[in-house]
UniProtKB/TrEMBL annotation:
Membrane topology classification: Multi-pass membrane protein
Gene Ontology CC terms: plasma membrane
Keywords of this entry: Cell inner membrane, Cell membrane, Membrane, Transmembrane, Transmembrane helix, Transport
Residue ranges crossing the lipid bilayer per the database entry: 20-43, 55-74, 95-117, 137-162
Domain Tripartite ATP-independent periplasmic transporters DctQ component: 34-163
Name of this protein: TRAP transporter small permease protein
Organism: Halotalea alkalilenta
Pfam families xrefs: DctQ
Function field: Part of the tripartite ATP-independent periplasmic (TRAP) transport system.
GO molecular function: transmembrane transporter activity
Membership in a protein family: Belongs to the TRAP transporter small permease family.
Gene Ontology BP term (one): C4-dicarboxylate transport
Length: 177
C-alpha cells in the first residue's frame, strides 16, 4: 500500500510544483515590471531618458500568462456561478466537467498556436521594433508556457471532477483558498 500512495502523490507533487513555479515566475516578472517603472521614474527625476516601455509590456504579458494556472488552482479566477449554483450536485459536477473539458481543449489549442508563433519567431529571427530589439520568441515563450500550464491545470481539474472530487477552483465561501 505505501508504494501505491507514493505513485499517487508523486504526480500530485509534480503538478503542484509546476503550478507554484509558474506563480513564482509570474511574481518575478511582476517585480521586474515594478523595477522598470521605478527606473523610469528615477531616470526622469535625474533628467535621463529611460525607455523601458517595451520591457515593461513584456514583463506584464509574462506575468499575466504565467500566473493563469496558479491562479486557477487557488480559485482566483472570476467565475459566474449563477447557473451552476442552481443545479443539484450530480448535474453541477457534470456541467463543471463539461466546462473544464471545453476550456482545456480551447486553451490547449491556444497554447499550440502560441507555440507555433514562438517557433516561427525563432525561425525568422523576429525582433521587437523598440530600442531594446529583443527577439520576439523570448516574451512569446512565456505566453505559450503560461497557456500550456493553464491547459494542464484544467485537465487536472477535469480528472478530479471525473473521479468524484469537487473542483479545487471553486470558492467555498470559507475565506480559505
Amino acid at each position: 500500500m505505501p508504494d501505491d500512495r507514493r505513485r499517487i502523490t508523486l504526480p500530485r507533487r509534480l503538478l503542484e510544483g509546476l503550478y507554484f513555479s509558474s506563480g513564482v515566475l509570474a511574481a518575478l516578472f511582476l517585480a521586474l515590471l515594478a523595477i522598470s517603472i521605478i527606473a523610469q521614474i528615477i531616470g526622469r527625476l535625474a533628467g535621463v531618458a529611460v525607455d523601458a516601455t517595451e520591457f515593461s509590456g513584456f514583463c506584464m504579458a509574462a506575468s499575466s500568462f504565467l500566473g493563469l494556472g496558479y491562479t486557477l488552482r487557488l480559485g482566483g479566477h472570476v467565475r459566474v456561478g449563477m447557473l451552476v449554483e442552481t443545479l443539484s450536485e450530480p448535474y453541477r459536477t457534470r456541467l463543471e466537467a463539461l466546462v473544464c473539458a471545453f476550456s482545456a481543449l480551447l486553451v490547449g489549442w491556444l497554447a499550440w498556436c502560441a507555440l507555433k508563433l514562438v517557433l516561427e519567431s525563432w525561425e525568422f529571427g523576429d525582433l521587437s521594433p523598440g530600442l531594446l530589439a529583443m527577439p520576439f520568441w523570448i516574451p512569446q515563450s512565456a505566453m505559450a508556457l503560461g497557456l500550456g500550464i493553464l491547459a494542464v491545470a484544467l485537465c487536472d481539474e477535469l480528472v478530479s471532477l471525473l473521479r468524484g472530487r469537487s473542483a479545487r477552483y471553486i470558492d467555498r465561501g470559507d475565506g480559505a483558498l
